[in-house]
Amino acid sequence: MKTTLSVIKADIGSIAGHIKPSQKLLEIIKNFIKKSDLISDYRVFYTGDDIAIFLVHQKGKDNPEIHKLAWDSFMEATQIAKEQGLYGAGQDLLKDSFAGNVKGAGPAVAELEFEERPAEPVFLFMADKTNPGAYNLPFYLAFSDPFYNSGLILVPEISKGFKFVIADMEYKGEGERVIELCAPEELYDIACLLRDTEKYGILEIYSRHSGEQCVSVSTTRLHNIAGKYTGKDDPVALVRLQKHFPAAGEILAPFSLAPYVPGFMRGSHQGPLMPVKVNTPVSYFDGPPIVSCVGFCVHNGKLTEEVDVFDHPFWDYVREKAAQKAEEIRRQGFFGNAMVSKQELEYTGITDKLKILESRFKIKG
Known about the structure:
Layout: E1 3-10, H1 23-34, E2 41-47, E3 50-57, H2 64-84, E4 108-114, E5 121-128, H3 136-144, H4 151-154, H5 156-159, E6 162-168, E7 178-183, H6 187-194, E8 200-207, E9 213-217, H7 222-226, E10 236-240, H8 248-252, E11 260-263, E12 269-272, E13 274-275, E14 290-299, E15 302-303, E16 307-308, H9 313-330, H10 349-358
Parallel strand pairs: 13-14
Antiparallel strand pairs: 1-3, 1-4, 2-3, 5-10, 5-14, 6-7, 6-8, 8-9, 9-10, 11-12, 14-15, 14-16
Helix pairs in contact: 1-2, 3-6
């Protein structure tokens, strides 16, 4: 029987603005999940003000029972968030009732289904104060660039390359509008799309040696669902490692760049993606954008103890570099590239003001 990994994440309330969820919220969700007989194992984490529920089960992807389990736990915790007076209680729960799947209802979802290998190492990434395109550059480099993935030239199975499934994140219809491109033959086409982190995002990646899926990324855009700004998308991702997939270090290495990504303060600025320890709050200008990562091995539907992969002295150096990059770009305030494009601006004050000012322009001869 195949094993399924599901991570479902939502912001349902936070202490002192967008900083972190309360301990009681985490306890409510853990107690709710552990009573279920649908799953074989689970973990609950937070990154910034988002809570991620990580579930192991044998019910396959997009299973209504699994999705409802997460939805109901978030709904119960939301009531506690309201009782505690937390900020943004139920913020990411954009539908009034569960309709068989949390996709399109607000929470971010990433899922992998596979036959377990004798050793099945996986990474769970959780980001806050950014959009799904934040993973574009790190995963592009990890799966297609020998500078970061030496397995592409050292390991015959990896040398066959990977298939990227890329989603048009601005598509508002039913389902996902996607394109499939293969590296290395279509590498420049992949780069052409992924450079636009506001519109295109990696949805899935597959090994061309085995055909197996090794990456799943949530590509939910909350403003597409709500029709207005309700918070940043704060994406999650699952990655299988080793053998004919990239090694752990090859997946992690690109995150040392701390690349500039959309999000940050009010979801409307650019900022460096800072790798942080798991269960880290946000602080500086409601940021900077952060990503945490925990690693496991999965065996017979159970998780080993987790390892916090960014809890290492090397990443202290990267965090220092990211802090410097954050401070530098914030010195530029709202001018030019320090803010996201007009199309991506989550707060409509500027766009509304521009519409008014547009009518006052004159032709000067």
